[in-house]
Amino acid sequence: MTVKTRIYLVRHGETAWNAGGKFQGHSDIPLSERGRKQAKALAERLSNLKIDAFYSSDLSRARETAGILAEPHRGTVYYLPELREINFGRWEGLTFKEIAEAYGELSTRWWASPLTIQIPAGESLQQVVDRCTRAVAGIITRHAGETVVVAAHGGVIRVIVGAALGLDLNHFWQLRLDNVSLTVLEYHGPEKAILELFNDTCHLHEK
């Protein structure tokens, strides 16, 4: 019988750079007050579930989100640097428009083929795929048959979902992922996963 592991993937709450449309990457930008309220809304939604472990990227916006989610469960959060957002290098702090204006052809090439194009002083998407795949495999191994919450970043969650479903990750930006959205994957061992929920934000809607 296959042991199932359910992973709740949560994108961190909003930051000032999110609100301003700036690329964050490895820049350690904290949650805004709105981002904290968003995380508390999701924490309330998840408060009655049995959750066996909490993991997070080691960047503060994800760490704080995970801490808010873990609080009702009195859970410990484990930080994994492998779950960091894409390192956008020299693009961090810039908007999409500013990147396109400053990096022209390279920007166009990256959006068309992010798996292989290296961002100046940053990463290619393939490097992100490799580290995220290792992180998820480790979580599945350690928590076989359990339910785990993972607080991470938009690019990271797109990569994890795309890899699980066998998608062409050169198109990963076509997966919309909102702040404090909930995405659920059920793993039947490390090689097979079923997507149960994607980018759900019903906890943010007014009651």
Automatic annotation (TrEMBL):
Q: Name one Pfam family in it.
A: His_Phos_1
Q: Which domain of life is it from?
A: Bacteria
**Gene Ontology annotations for the cellular component aspect, listed alphabetically:** cytoplasm
Catalytic machinery residues:
H12, E85
Q: Which InterPro entries match?
A: 6Pfruct_kin, His_Pase_superF_clade-1, His_PPase_superfam, PG/BPGM_mutase_AS, PGM_Phosphatase, Ribazole_CobC
> Which key words tag this protein in UniProt?
Glycolysis, Isomerase
Annotated positions binding substrate: R11, H12, G13, E14, T15, A16, W17, N18, R61
Could you tell me which PROSITE patterns the record lists for this protein? Answer: PG_MUTASE (PS00175)
Q: Which GO terms describe its biological process?
A: cobalamin biosynthetic process; fructose 2,6-bisphosphate metabolic process
Q: What is this protein called?
A: Alpha-ribazole phosphatase
